[in-house]
Amino acid sequence: MSTENTFPAATILGYPRIGPGRELKKAVEAYWAGRLDEAGLQHAADQLQDRTVARLVELGLDRGDSSIPADFALYDQVLDATAALGALPARFADLAAEDGSVDTAGYFTLARGDGERAPLELTKWFDTNYHYLVPEIGPGTPFVAVAHGLTATVRRQRERGTVLRPVLVGPVTYLLLAKPEDGAPAGFDPLERIDDAVAAYVGILASLAEAGAEWVQLDEPGLVGDRGGELAAPGGLVERVYRQLAGTAGRPALLVTTGYGTAGDPARPGQALAVLATAGVEAVHADLVRGSRPSAEALQALGGTRLVAGVVDGRNVWRNDLRFSLGVLEDLQQETGTAVTTATSTSLLHVPHDVQAETGLPEHLPAWLAFADQKVREAVVLARGLAGGRPAVAAELQDAEEALGHRARFDGVVVDSVRTRTRGLTEEAFTRGPAERRAEAQQERLGLPLLPTTTIGSFPQTREVRGARAAVRSGSISQSEYEQFLRQEIANVVRLQEGLGLDVLVHGEPERNDMVQYFAENLDGFAATEQGWVQSYGSRCTRPSILWGDVSRPQAFTVPWISFAQSLTERPLKGMLTGPVTILAWSFVRDDQPLGETANQVALALRDEIADLEAAGIAIVQVDEPALRELLPLRSADHQAYLDWSVRAFRLATAGAEDGTQIHTHLCYSEFGEVISAIDGLDADVTSIEAARSRLEVVADLAGFGYSRGIGPGVYDIHSPRVPSEQEISGLIDTALAALPAQQLWINPDCGLKTRGYDETVLSLRNLVAATRAARGSVRLSTAEQVLARS
Ligand code: MET
Ligand SMILES: [Zn+2]
């Protein structure tokens, strides 16, 4: 490669892949359904890619200088790396062609499984709401260079006059994200395969160069985790790997990105970048939004390696403080003594496409926001200001400043009555009476049997339910017709549960489109978008709400539905709320105050709702926190501070409840073994927790901890239409009973039934109730035997 460092002045690390009209989602799902053949899918993907390139050029990136990243995965970028490396686990070896590559059908088999085989596991990408497919690496996993798709993309765009910068997950991060393949020797660490992986990357770099790539981007965000410090220290594994890659003849120039925090040892910010520079890469990226600014010493050590400064937040939707960012860039440029590139802190994958597409936002909001397209422009403007001086971008700086000033002073951003309340909070507001006293009061009030059965809240959201929601939105049915429909739906769900013999009933949540959006729509301080889709995994997208101002509750909103449901039955009906941490985790949250303050505001709104539910005679309230584990910081050193504010917010929401009100919580989507003491800290009377797929692993952790309140480990995996047999559920109940006292246990599914159909739901719940009844019998028997043995 040429020795002259020609990296562009502005770039982004990646762009939303799903398409402004969710074109990719539609094409991929049509392909799965057999409505589109492989050529049709390829054509749709190519068209979207052309549109993206054209759009990025329009926004100010240059077609010819590698500033446009090629990150067009059909499903997931980590799966793309697995395919490019031919790194198929043995259980999928048959999907590989002779050269080790997989075709489109095989690619989707890895993502979605087939008749006999479960897909690759899906897991959170760092501390985001994006999920990737976990590579399974063993001692024998093949590593070959078969990046056919990426090479074809580069070549195709090159023919159209565009020099793309192909993007790949880097080798260290790839192996850090992997898990040992089933059957790998105990203690096997996928990183043991680094040399084989690097050899394949060398081959990939060569074929990308041949296809016309001048720069290649290798993403190494894995270096911001707990292992990053050691791996990226001078003389460590990262240095060795990148020396090898940089030493390859005829390769493209290399940009190594970090992102999601400070790479390497957080006490030595920038050291990891200096190490990469020493190894010989041409450009290194740092996240300057979540991460710390590199030290002056580290910056000097960069030498001729270009610094790519991530000053535009890739993870949030707020407009950039351009004057501040420009100041950071100017400082960096001075300290490195050479040109610096302006970039995003991460890929823009985590934000929606375009603010301009929104027509229904409150009038004040659009000017405060920057989605992906606006962020590209911000990076371009900053680069122009850095090169040409502030006068060159005076108007843009002025605009941004005015928008930020408007935001800071806007009515609703700070609401005195909300502030007075949070300021006045004392320790008492976070504390309930002693758990034993509560348990007694609740048992007296509820009189529940041993091993009470319940569900997690939602019942199947059928075509009719979704249809009614769409109809009221479009005005083809009236609000009162819609409400009548919902009451009917609730009555059906209540009757069904009574018939099944469940002990604690729910109303089924038919009025909720989404467990967070529904709360955002009913609380002040939030706004909802129309087109703000963000990829969550594969073709699945979510539309996070925007939390822009102080949060409060204009009026009770769940109470009418819950008390209607309770009026239909003698059995206790459980009110259903989404917890403060989950509401924050699944929204775009204001960035002008600590998350803990915002969480307390949400908590107080929920606390008021619980008080109103109690006043309406509801004896059980569940506050769902499926995202509790999700926001856990990447470095263990930061865990406690997070758990402190998140657990406190939950307690603030729930601690106003009377002793006799039973507070439940529900946790799912993660493994919770690591945060048992936080779960204990929530102080809920009953916790239901996803557990079926791990065959109740968590009960052993709970028992080991000495957890003493109610616990409902999920005994029915609701993630597939499969009906668990009574025998299978009995087996799981026995596992729970072996670890924990029967008095503590609840019997319930893993999560809500929203995505399931009625047929399988009814069969599964019938088995769940039958297995519970059998277990009650044998517990009583064994207690009687113990009594006999003692006498
Ligand atoms: C992702 S957790 C879902 C909890 C909610 N109450 C439901 O049942 O759907
Ligand atoms: Zn759940």
TrEMBL record:
Its EC number is 2.1.1.14. It comes from the Bacteria. Pathway: Amino-acid biosynthesis; L-methionine biosynthesis via de novo pathway; L-methionine from L-homocysteine (MetE route): step 1/1. Its cofactor is Zn(2+). PANTHER family: 5-METHYLTETRAHYDROPTEROYLTRIGLUTAMATE--HOMOCYSTEINE METHYLTRANSFERASE. NCBIfam families: met_syn_B12ind, PRK05222.1. This is 5-methyltetrahydropteroyltriglutamate--homocysteine S-methyltransferase. It comes from Arthrobacter burdickii. The lineage of its organism: Bacteria, Bacillati, Actinomycetota, Actinomycetes, Micrococcales. The gene is metE.
